[in-house]
Write a structure and sequence with these properties.
This protein is α/β, with parallel strands linked by helices. The protein has helices at residues 2-23, 67-70, 96-109, 123-134, 167-178, 181-184, 199-206, 210-220, 222-230, 261-277, 297-300, 302-319; strands at 29-33, 36-43, 50-53, 76-79, 116-121, 139-145, 240-244, 285-289.
């Protein structure tokens, strides 16, 4: 009976994923970057091009609340890192250096004009910082959206919500997905408010089993990514926008039973200091705290991301008369 149920659940999940991915093909284009398929979704026109780097373990859909609006300002591109969404997994390490190299190869293959403005959220902020260090001539500005800092401790106040699993815990999570248990519990069809237009793509990727292995690989390389980020900068007079969550907000309800008020305050103060330290990266760094926002500022306060990024784009355009023409 258990074998039959397991086989039935696994078949159900497999067929559901295949149906969702067939019914919702990826927007944009799939490019062959150094022999590996990578997905890039560009909208809008103008320069500099904005390139959106998703957070640790996430795909292009997380930018659904801001990409349409930013595309009215300039060309805006989101993408799937190797192993996520419609980008195939690649061999080798999943640290910031390798991720930056793969993004660079993708942008070159897609003929994305440089310099770009790179936006990185959470762990993607580390990847963006390393990219700007490796390819400084290609980057005209950085936007760090509550980005991870090179310092691993103390953990920021959102860390308890990220569910960093041990190997045994991850094996359990992967099993629940593979056998259809997660789908039965409704975890494959959950669409965040405001992302209804992306619902098909989110469902196509939510319980796509191979992504879990990609997440584990990025998670295990996070320590190396932090070290690599520590060796980057300062970046001279590069325009840098630091968007930080509101650490003065009350403990979110879903965390109230997992963290004490004392620990929350300690972690929040430490995270605030780490975010403030990003101001030292450039002589033209600017920090904005998104009032009432948690770690996902582009979910909680997309208006702040849109407005402040637009201001940075205008700053970049004023620096270079060749930037800002429609292409």
């Amino acid at each position: 009976m258990l074998v039959v149920l397991a086989a039935s659940g696994a078949t159900w999940n497999f067929l559901a994923v295949r149906h969702d991915r067939t019914a919702n093909p990826p927007p944009g284009h799939i490019y062959d970057a150094n022999g590996y398929a990578m997905h890039l979704y560009c909208t809008g026109t103008g320069s500099p091009t904005l390139v959106l780097e998703s957070g640790h373990g996430e795909d292009f859909t997380v930018w659904g609340k801001v990409q349409p609006a930013l595309s009215r300002i300039t060309r805006t591109c989101s993408y799937d890192r190797a192993g996520f969404g419609w980008s195939v997994a690649q061999p080798g390490e999943r640290d910031a250096v390798h991720i930056a190299d793969q993004l660079h190869a993708l942008l070159m293959k897609a003929n994305i004009a440089t310099p770009i403005v790179l936006i990185g959220h959470s762990g993607g902020g580390l990847y963006a910082r390393v990219y700007a260090s490796k390819f400084p001539q290609d980057v005209a500005g950085l936007v760090l959206v509550d980005a991870y800092t090179p310092t691993p401790l103390p953990e920021p106040p959102f860390a308890v919500a990220l569910d960093h699993h041990s190997s045994a815990e991850f094996a359990f999570v992967k099993t629940t997905v593979a056998l259809g248990i997660a789908r039965l519990m409704g975890e494959c069809d959950s669409i965040p408010d405001g992302l209804e237009a992306y619902a098909g793509w989110i469902k196509a990727n939510e319980c796509y089993y191979p992504q879990l292995d990609a997440y584990v690989r990025e998670d295990r390389a996070l320590g190396d990514s932090r070290k690599e980020g520590a060796y980057t900068g300062p970046f001279g007079n590069l325009p840098i926008l630091i968007l930080s969550q509101d650490t003065k907000r009350p403990i979110p309800a879903f965390l109230s039973k997992r963290v004490t008020p004392k620990d929350w305050l300690w972690q929040a103060d430490a995270h605030d200091r780490e975010q403030a330290a990003y101001l030292q990266l450039s002589t033209r760094s600017r920090r904005v705290i998104a009032a009432g926002s948690g770690h996902y500022i582009h979910y909680d306060r997309p208006d702040v991301v849109i407005d402040e990024t637009t201001a940075l784009i205008q700053q970049v355009r004023s620096d270079d008369s060749s930037v800002g023409t429609t292409k």
